[in-house]
Amino acid sequence: MINMNKNKRLLKYLLWIVGLIVVFAFCFIPTHYYVEGVGSAENTNQFVKVNSQRDQHKGHFMLTTVGIQGPVTGLQLLLSKTQPFTEIISRDELMGDDDTEAYDQIQKYYMESSINFAIEAAYQKAHQEYHTQYLGVYVMSILDNSAFKKDLAIGDTITAIDQHQFKSANKFVKYVQGLKVNQKVTISYEHNGQRKTATRKLIKLPKSRYAGLGITLTDHSKIVTKVPVKIDAGEIGGPSAGLMFTLQIYNQLTKQNLTGGRKISGTGTMDPDGIVGPIGGIDKKVLIASQEGAKVFFAPDDPVTKAILKVEPHYQNNYAIAKAAAKKIGTKMKIVPVKNLDDALDYLAKH
User: Fold this and answer.
1) Which residues cross the membrane (predicted)?
2) Of 141, 188, 248, 252, which sits with the fewest C-beta atoms within 10 Å of its C-beta?
């Protein structure tokens, strides 16, 4: 005779065990998702030295960041829904095909480029001397079938090929395109501050008749100035601090007090000609700037063209999103649209 009560108890225990496993997985096992939320508002003065000095004026500029948490658990995903302006993004959306180390290297490069552009824009506006020093080509990605796959890493800088040095990535590419598939070349490169060389064969590039190393590359340079400037952004990556670094540098170069004793925050990329570009997560940056007491927030006012609206009918630019975020949180912080460096400087001069 079958003991039905015993079987029921066994089934009950099994269900409890399965339930506990599910709860454990939900609470403690990471998913493939990340949470983008509010980051920090940092005083730019702590990162910037002009002529070996930090800004001594009352008030300060603040750069703003978003926070990336992850990979997160199911419980963390659920809790993120209770926080304002949070977004859930997949690993592919955040990093693409890169691993964490490669992603961090790319963000580091974007910050380095942002700093270069900020210095150039500020020195140009202040009529101070500077020049560009070309360092080589920066490795942005590497094909799996590249013969240099085991030598190079994302973030390395190739300084020469077959002892030839170039003044731009385009000239480097043209030289390599003149070579043959399977031809051996020797590259000189820097990896984590160490100088190295490697000799390997060129491959046939995908969808092309040309030979190549099998890498995606871009110019790697730095701005050299007569009045010394140093910016150390620490662990902060990405290009979005460009505008605020430019304002900080210009403020010190011209010995002005553009802040007027206030906390001035904002975001946006900067190019050498002073054009401010859009960034991501501006609603989160508005929130943290307001919480940290900023009186003004500069928001990129990137143009909303017919071409953009044709592809994305409900597109809103950074300024519109920032205004909506400010209204939602009820802040008194002034949201100021800027298309270029002059827009920000003109506002500060008049207010």
Assistant:
1) 12-35
2) 141
Q: Can you tell me the distance from the alpha carbon of 5 to that of 90, in angstroms, rounded to the nearest whole number? A: 46
| DSSP letter, residue 171 | H
Widest pairwise Cα distance in the chain? 98
* Cα distance between the two ends of the chain: 91
The question of whether 141 is a catalytic residue gets the answer no
List of domains in the chain: 33-129+226-350 (3.30.230), 131-222 (2.30.42.10)
Q: Which of 113, 240, 265, 290 is catalytic?
A: 240
Residues in the chain: 351
Q: What CA–CA distance (Å, rounded) separates 87 from 284?
A: 10
Distances (CA, A) of 59 to 62, 300, 318: 10, 22, 25
Amino acid at 103: Y
User: Which residues contact residue 74 at a Cβ distance below 8 angstroms, ignoring those fewer than 6 apart?
Assistant: 25, 26, 27, 29, 31
Q: In what order do the strands lie in the sheet with 157-161?
A: 194-201, 184-191, 157-161, 130-142, 215-225
Q: Which of 294, 342, 223 is nearest to 61 (CA)?
A: 294
Q: Over its length of 351 residues, how does the chain's per-residue pLDDT go in tens digits? A: 456 666 777 777 787 887 788 777 777 888 899 999 999 999 999 999 999 999 988 899 999 999 998 898 988 888 888 888 999 999 888 888 778 888 888 999 999 999 999 999 999 999 999 999 999 999 999 999 999 999 999 999 999 999 999 989 999 999 999 999 999 999 999 999 999 999 999 999 988 889 999 999 999 999 999 999 999 998 899 999 999 999 999 999 999 899 999 999 999 999 999 999 999 999 999 999 999 999 999 999 999 988 989 999 999 999 999 999 999 999 999 999 999 999 999 999 999
296-300 and 276-277 beta bridge pairing: unpaired
Please tell me the distance from the alpha carbon of residue 161 to that of residue 175, in angstroms, as a whole number. Answer: 9
pTM above 0.85, yes or no: yes
Is 290 in the active site? no
